[in-house]
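Complex record, two chains
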Amino acid sequence: DQQVKQNSPSLSVQEGRISILNCDYTNSMFDYFLWYKKYPAEGPTFLISISSIKDKNEDGRFTVFLNKSAKHLSLHIVPSQPGDSAVYFCAASNTGNQFYFGTGTSLTVIP
Amino acid sequence: DVKVTQSSRYLVKRTGEKVFLECVQDMDHENMFWYRQDPGLGLRLIYFSYDVKMKEKGDIPEGYSVSREKKERFSLILESASTNQTSMYLCASSPGGPPGAEAFFGQGTRLTVV
């Protein structure tokens, strides 16, 4: 059973606007959450993370929000740029020894 | 920079062949992972290893085996390749221990079984 879910397979956003990617999880024992970005024919690259003791983490144009009561996290990209077009994977970890990934959301930023 | 290197970017193998996918990391990480990525299914864990000679099954281990004889190297073996094993294979490593560190991925191997 999928413990990390990304219910939107794709998202299109105009350049300069905000992109919001969503992720839900079922295991309340997860204590660390990550977002990865993946271009075709390349491996995923780490983007941003958040510990379960926080509700927000910001890094430049990227902000991750965590709502533990709802078991929901989101990635905000502001402003969106064409180079942000990629597949974004949400991941969760409970021991640091295993990472559970969602199915990914393909983001297209339209110039 | 952490580097995770997979031995091949693209492979084409015949049904029934034994296939070896090699992965090497240079950061002395404890943990190593093999995932496969398929459209609509995301990254699914095949096997992982938290120490030399140790291995744990992931979500989809059937048809695969692994070997970790040295800390820096983690091999994925397809004992008898089948067409449903055509996929993108991704190796990753992480330091292990308390949460707070990310996994680092290799560039991926696109395997086609014909």
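Note: Chain B is about 0% helix and 55% strand.
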